[in-house]
């Protein structure tokens, strides 16, 4: 199987970050079917929606309805994007127990994305943590634009470390390091993940990458080698931030899985995953950017991973 060591959990973010830049919309029923298909195949963790304003991100308008239909066992494997304590409160009331509290390393992107300064988002985090604890949930500190900002350019790594060290983020179970624009390179990813691991409170590290410059998989592997225990991807490389000029698709889940080969991923399971992805992308009118999915459709039938 050639499973990558050390191992990391894939979190598929198709139904949140993957849908943000698409013109297509998915019904509650279609989202639930996708969630259940991916969980049944063995995908260990999913991001299933966002509490962003539906007038700004219409594809997230039915997030609360999706959460309300999931079982407790399903919800235990699902995450929801939040940016305020009120978001956490509303998502928790619908059943969510895993919250990704996100803000940017730079004020410019945080203002564009969330409508407040980074300091304001950080100051509100203890209240968000408290609400998550009240429902026996867990919360992540998610630092967008950890490497580059579409407005300010290069981000000082010490800025990200400083945020992760801040006592107001102490209640976070994980810290998510985001290459929002997909402009980082492997050595840069490895360096920042290592600094966060060594210089900030002990907790799990998540890497969220994009494939804008073709280094999504390479950066993901570098993050895992440096200590990330969860990595994000989206089916077919869907997605990107609508408030970050120059952002493009997430690193494809198919590519990450093919590269890392978790024990649950067999050629047959991979084939089923590719089919789920192809059907969804066709419905959305989106191209399939996954190299592994394209490879699975090659005529080289002697290779076990070809459909």
TrEMBL record:
Residues 8-274 form the Pyruvate carboxyltransferase domain. It comes from the Bacteria. Keywords: Lyase, Metal-binding, Transferase. SUPFAM superfamilies: Aldolase (SSF51569). One of its GO terms (molecular function) is acyltransferase activity, acyl groups converted into alkyl on transfer. One of its GO terms (biological process) is L-leucine catabolic process. Transmembrane segments: none annotated. The keyword Lipid metabolism does not apply. Pfam families: HMGL-like. The keyword Lyase applies. Belongs to the HMG-CoA lyase family. PANTHER family: HYDROXYMETHYLGLUTARYL-COA LYASE. This is Hydroxymethylglutaryl-CoA lyase. The lineage of its organism: Bacteria, Bacillati, Actinomycetota, Actinomycetes, Micrococcales.
């Amino acid at each position: 199987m050639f499973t990558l060591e050390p191992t990391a959990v894939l979190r598929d973010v198709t139904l949140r970050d993957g849908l943000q830049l698409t013109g297509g919309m998915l019904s509650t029923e279609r989202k639930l079917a996708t969630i259940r298909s991916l969980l049944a195949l063995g995908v260990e963790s999913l991001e299933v929606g966002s509490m962003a304003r539906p007038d700004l991100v219409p594809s997230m308008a039915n997030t609360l309805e999706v959460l309300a239909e999931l079982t407790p066992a399903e919800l235990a494997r699902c995450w929801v994007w939040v940016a305020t304590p009120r978001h956490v409160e509303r998502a928790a009331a619908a059943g969510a127990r895993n919250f990704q509290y996100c803000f940017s390393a730079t004020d410019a992107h945080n203002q564009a994305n969330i409508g407040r300064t980074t300091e304001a988002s950080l100051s509100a985090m203890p209240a968000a943590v408290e609400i998550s604890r009240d429902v026996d949930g867990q919360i992540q500190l998610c630092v967008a634009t950890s490497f580059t900002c579409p407005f300010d350019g290069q981000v000082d790594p010490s800025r990200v470390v400083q945020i992760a060290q801040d006592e107001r983020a102490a209640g976070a179970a994980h810290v998510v390091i985001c290459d929002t624009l997909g402009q980082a390179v492997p050595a840069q990813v490895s360096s920042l993940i290592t600094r966060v691991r060594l210089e900030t409170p002990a907790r799990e590290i998540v890497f969220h990458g994009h494939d804008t410059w073709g280094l999504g998989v390479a950066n993901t592997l570098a993050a895992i080698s440096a200590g990330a225990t969860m990595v994000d991807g989206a089916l077919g490389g869907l997605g990107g931030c609508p408030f970050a000029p120059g952002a493009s698709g997430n690193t494809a889940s198919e590519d990450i899985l093919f590269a890392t080969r978790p024990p649950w991923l067999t050629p047959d399971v991979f084939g089923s995953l590719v089919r789920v992805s192809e059907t969804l992308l066709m419905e959305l009118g989106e191209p399939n950017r996954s190299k592994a999915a394209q490879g699975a459709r090659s005529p080289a039938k002697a290779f076990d991973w070809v459909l």
